[in-house]
UniProtKB/TrEMBL annotation:
It comes from the Bacteria. One of its GO terms (molecular function) is glycerol-3-phosphate dehydrogenase [NAD(P)+] activity. This is Glycerol-3-phosphate dehydrogenase [NAD(P)+]. InterPro entries: 6-PGluconate_DH-like_C_sf, 6PGD_dom2, G3P_DH_NAD-dep, G3P_DH_NAD-dep_C, G3P_DH_NAD-dep_N, NAD(P)-bd_dom_sf. Residues 4-158 form the Glycerol-3-phosphate dehydrogenase NAD-dependent N-terminal domain. Sn-glycerol 3-phosphate binds at residues 107, 134, 136, 189, 242, 252-254. Belongs to the NAD-dependent glycerol-3-phosphate dehydrogenase family.
């Protein structure tokens, strides 16, 4: 099955996904707001700004005319940072038929409304939203290295349609009905990837990273459970999978940003070093504000420490020490089975 598809956003992820869809035989147009990026894709088949080392499929076309990109498309993939989504929807919303399938690929939570990307898209009147998320660094998708991802939607038909469009011999797509769980997994793990980078910047070890990832799953499960999503989803690609890849890979902008923070750089210096979007910064702020706004008692100690290091000038070493010396507890606190203690 192939389709006429528009991809909005020609950064790392939009370019990698548009290229994959074109490789799969779809008719794809990518929207870039930067005219030089448009020219480099159309004239030389590469994106000089984000992927200068990779040749793109020659059938992939670019434009900075939003209306032309969206004309008669069956599917629209949105690949801009969470903070840009509303602007894009304001610009594009009226040009899109309400029945069109919108594929949401950003990983974040809106700082003001505390909505996920798919929720914001639905607010604009689009009901056929599919969330595509998982452990998928754009660079490795461009390299055609075996990768797996999840297509999550309320409608099985839509999830499977998107699965069909993206699936290839190097890109395996699973479906999942737990849209919220998949989406929150992708957003929350960015904060943990920042924490992982901070630990690396402080020259902590592999034990530290393993502890961080495992305890992060625990705090993510509190959050996901509170929001009515399935904690089981966290054992999948958009939870465990994405935590592993972003907490360990040098492709991860969140982790690279965290490394700079751990080495003593300020938030602005670290962002300038990474240059591309670091979603974990805004997500940490959104969650911290949300936790504090109604004195919510959810235990999210790692996310809280990340916020304080980034926004309250807390010393990262002190943050780690405080995490280590928190009050003692049982590992599986929510499911303690006292009968196993033989008492
Ligand atoms: N990179 C990856 O490996 C993956 C990224 N993601 C997620 O995808 C989302 C996008 O990330 P990514 O592509 O990596 O980010 P990049 O920083 O690489 O690129 C962002 C892109 O969005 C464009 N953009 C920003 N604001 C607007 C706007 N208002 N209108 C149109 N275009 C806009 C930028 O344009 P310009 O160049 O003109 O600034 C740029 O093309 C993030 O949420 C990220 O977490 C998900 C999976 C993998
Ligand atoms: O989400 C990603 C890979 O799954 C990309 O992570 P970064 O935004 O940290 O680079």
């Amino acid at each position: 099955m192939t389709a006429k598809i528009a991809v909005i956003g020609a950064g790392s992820w939009g370019t990698a996904l548009a290229n994959l869809l074109a490789e799969n035989g779809n008719q794809v147009k990518i929207y870039a707001r930067d005219a030089e990026v448009v020219d480099s894709i159309n004239e030389e088949n590469y994106n000089f700004k984000y992927f200068s080392g990779y040749k793109l499929n020659k059938n992939l076309k670019a434009s900075n005319d939003l209306e032309a990109c969206l004309e008669n498309v069956e599917v629209i993939v949105i690949s801009v940072p969470t903070s840009a989504l509303k602007t894009v929807l304001n610009d594009a919303g009226a040009l899109i038929d309400q029945d069109t399938i919108i594929v949401s690929t950003a990983k974040g939570i809106d700082e003001k409304s505390f909505k996920t990307n798919s929720e914001m898209i639905k607010e604009f009147g689009f009901q056929n939203v599919v969330v595509l998320s998982g452990p998928t660094h754009a660079e490795e998708v461009m390299e055609k290295l075996p990768t797996a991802i999840v297509s999550a939607a309320e409608s099985k038909e839509n999830a499977e349609k998107v699965q069909d469009l993206f699936m290839s011999k190097y890109f395996r797509v699973y479906t999942n009905p737990d849209v919220k769980g998949v989406e929150l997994g992708g957003a929350l793990k960015n904060v943990i990837a920042v924490a992982s980078g901070i630990c690396d910047g402080l020259n902590y070890g592999d034990n530290t990273r393993a502890a961080l990832i495992t305890r992060a799953l625990n705090e993510m499960s509190h959050f996901i459970n509170y929001h009515g999503a399935k904690t089981m989803t966290l054992s999948g690609l958009s939870g465990m999978g994405d935590l592993v890849v972003t907490c360990t890979s040098m492709h991860s902008r969140n982790r690279r940003f965290g490394i700079e923070i751990g080495k003593g750089k300020t938030l602005v210096e670290a962002k300038n070093k990474v240059k591309q979007v670091v979603e974990g910064v805004k997500t940490a702020k959104a969650i911290y504000k949300w936790l504090n706004s109604k004195n919510r008692e959810l235990e999210m100690p790692i996310t809280k420490e990340v916020y304080q290091v980034l926004f309250e000038d807390k010393d990262p070493e002190q943050a780690v020490e405080e995490l280590m010396l928190r009050s003692k507890k049982h590992e599986m606190e929510s499911v303690v089975d006292n009968s196993l203690w033989n008492i």
